[in-house]
What we know:
Distance between the termini: 17 Å
Largest sheet: 7 strands, antiparallel
Structural class: alpha+beta
Helix content: 10-25%
Amino acid sequence: xxxxxxxxxxxxxxxxxxxxxxxxxxxxxxxxxxxxxxxxxxxxxxxxxxxxxxxxxxxxxxxxxxxxxxxxxxxxxxxxxxxxxxxxxxxxxxxxxxxxxxxxxxxxxxxxxxxxxxxxxxxxxxxxxxxxxxxxxxxxxxxxxx
Length: 146
Protein backbone atom coordinates (compact mmCIF):
# COMPACT_ATOMS: atom_id res chain seq x y z
CA UNK A 1 0.00 0.00 0.00
CA UNK A 2 1.53 3.31 -1.01
CA UNK A 3 1.91 5.92 1.68
CA UNK A 4 2.18 9.58 0.74
CA UNK A 5 3.58 11.64 3.61
CA UNK A 6 2.01 9.26 6.11
CA UNK A 7 -1.34 9.08 4.29
CA UNK A 8 -2.20 5.54 3.22
CA UNK A 9 -3.47 5.00 -0.32
CA UNK A 10 -4.59 1.40 -1.02
CA UNK A 11 -3.30 -0.12 -4.27
CA UNK A 12 -6.62 -1.61 -5.33
CA UNK A 13 -8.43 1.71 -5.56
CA UNK A 14 -8.66 4.31 -8.31
CA UNK A 15 -8.14 7.96 -7.38
CA UNK A 16 -9.43 11.33 -8.48
CA UNK A 17 -6.45 13.14 -6.96
CA UNK A 18 -7.75 16.63 -7.78
CA UNK A 19 -10.92 16.07 -5.72
CA UNK A 20 -9.45 13.73 -3.03
CA UNK A 21 -11.90 10.96 -3.95
CA UNK A 22 -11.36 7.21 -4.39
CA UNK A 23 -13.36 4.67 -6.39
CA UNK A 24 -13.59 0.91 -5.99
CA UNK A 25 -15.14 -1.22 -8.71
CA UNK A 26 -17.65 -3.59 -7.13
CA UNK A 27 -17.57 -6.32 -9.79
CA UNK A 28 -21.22 -5.80 -10.74
CA UNK A 29 -20.75 -2.62 -12.75
CA UNK A 30 -21.23 -0.38 -9.72
CA UNK A 31 -18.56 1.71 -7.97
CA UNK A 32 -18.07 2.57 -4.32
CA UNK A 33 -16.98 6.16 -3.68
CA UNK A 34 -15.11 7.61 -0.72
CA UNK A 35 -12.77 10.34 0.53
CA UNK A 36 -9.04 9.76 0.70
CA UNK A 37 -7.03 9.81 3.93
CA UNK A 38 -5.56 13.10 2.71
CA UNK A 39 -9.05 14.62 2.48
CA UNK A 40 -10.06 13.49 5.95
CA UNK A 41 -6.78 14.70 7.46
CA UNK A 42 -7.09 18.11 5.79
CA UNK A 43 -10.73 18.51 6.81
CA UNK A 44 -10.25 17.51 10.44
CA UNK A 45 -12.87 15.65 12.43
CA UNK A 46 -15.98 15.27 10.28
CA UNK A 47 -19.21 16.26 11.99
CA UNK A 48 -21.80 15.85 9.21
CA UNK A 49 -22.35 13.87 6.02
CA UNK A 50 -25.38 14.57 3.84
CA UNK A 51 -25.41 12.19 0.87
CA UNK A 52 -27.57 12.33 -2.21
CA UNK A 53 -30.51 10.00 -1.65
CA UNK A 54 -30.76 6.53 -3.16
CA UNK A 55 -32.30 6.83 -6.61
CA UNK A 56 -30.98 10.35 -7.20
CA UNK A 57 -28.72 11.16 -10.14
CA UNK A 58 -25.17 12.43 -9.79
CA UNK A 59 -23.79 14.37 -12.73
CA UNK A 60 -20.13 13.77 -13.63
CA UNK A 61 -17.87 16.09 -11.64
CA UNK A 62 -20.68 17.07 -9.29
CA UNK A 63 -21.46 16.30 -5.67
CA UNK A 64 -22.60 12.91 -4.42
CA UNK A 65 -22.85 14.37 -0.92
CA UNK A 66 -21.79 17.20 1.36
CA UNK A 67 -19.27 16.84 4.17
CA UNK A 68 -18.69 19.14 7.09
CA UNK A 69 -15.99 19.46 9.72
CA UNK A 70 -15.24 22.18 12.24
CA UNK A 71 -13.15 24.02 9.64
CA UNK A 72 -14.57 22.98 6.28
CA UNK A 73 -17.86 22.37 4.44
CA UNK A 74 -17.85 21.10 0.90
CA UNK A 75 -18.98 18.68 -1.74
CA UNK A 76 -17.66 15.19 -2.39
CA UNK A 77 -17.32 15.45 -6.16
CA UNK A 78 -17.70 12.24 -8.14
CA UNK A 79 -15.92 11.97 -11.48
CA UNK A 80 -18.50 9.31 -12.35
CA UNK A 81 -22.07 10.29 -13.06
CA UNK A 82 -24.92 7.90 -12.49
CA UNK A 83 -27.54 6.81 -10.00
CA UNK A 84 -26.91 6.54 -6.26
CA UNK A 85 -27.87 2.97 -5.37
CA UNK A 86 -26.56 2.85 -1.77
CA UNK A 87 -25.66 5.31 0.96
CA UNK A 88 -23.42 4.65 3.95
CA UNK A 89 -26.00 5.20 6.70
CA UNK A 90 -23.39 4.47 9.38
CA UNK A 91 -21.41 7.44 8.11
CA UNK A 92 -24.51 9.64 8.21
CA UNK A 93 -24.96 8.67 11.89
CA UNK A 94 -21.26 9.06 12.76
CA UNK A 95 -19.27 11.02 10.13
CA UNK A 96 -16.01 10.66 12.10
CA UNK A 97 -15.89 7.04 10.90
CA UNK A 98 -14.31 8.44 7.72
CA UNK A 99 -11.50 10.00 9.78
CA UNK A 100 -10.71 6.65 11.39
CA UNK A 101 -11.26 4.36 8.39
CA UNK A 102 -11.70 6.25 5.08
CA UNK A 103 -11.27 3.16 2.88
CA UNK A 104 -13.48 0.54 4.52
CA UNK A 105 -16.13 1.71 7.00
CA UNK A 106 -15.96 5.35 5.84
CA UNK A 107 -17.15 5.00 2.24
CA UNK A 108 -19.73 7.55 1.06
CA UNK A 109 -22.05 6.12 -1.61
CA UNK A 110 -22.28 3.42 -4.26
CA UNK A 111 -23.09 4.64 -7.76
CA UNK A 112 -24.37 2.79 -10.81
CA UNK A 113 -22.31 4.78 -13.31
CA UNK A 114 -23.71 5.91 -16.64
CA UNK A 115 -20.43 5.62 -18.55
CA UNK A 116 -17.73 4.16 -16.32
CA UNK A 117 -15.58 3.27 -19.33
CA UNK A 118 -15.04 6.92 -20.17
CA UNK A 119 -14.24 7.85 -16.55
CA UNK A 120 -11.88 5.09 -15.50
CA UNK A 121 -9.10 6.24 -17.83
CA UNK A 122 -9.02 9.66 -16.14
CA UNK A 123 -8.41 8.15 -12.70
CA UNK A 124 -5.04 7.30 -11.15
CA UNK A 125 -4.32 3.70 -10.18
CA UNK A 126 -3.25 3.09 -6.60
CA UNK A 127 0.19 1.89 -7.65
CA UNK A 128 0.75 5.18 -9.52
CA UNK A 129 -0.76 7.63 -7.01
CA UNK A 130 2.34 8.69 -5.05
CA UNK A 131 3.80 11.31 -7.44
CA UNK A 132 0.47 12.98 -8.34
CA UNK A 133 -0.52 13.15 -4.68
CA UNK A 134 2.86 14.58 -3.67
CA UNK A 135 2.32 17.37 -6.21
CA UNK A 136 -1.27 17.94 -5.02
CA UNK A 137 -0.16 18.13 -1.39
CA UNK A 138 2.58 20.61 -2.33
CA UNK A 139 0.10 22.80 -4.21
CA UNK A 140 -2.26 22.84 -1.22
CA UNK A 141 0.48 23.34 1.38
CA UNK A 142 -0.39 20.11 3.19
CA UNK A 143 2.51 18.48 5.04
CA UNK A 144 0.85 15.09 5.46
CA UNK A 145 -1.11 12.84 7.75
CA UNK A 146 -0.13 12.42 11.40
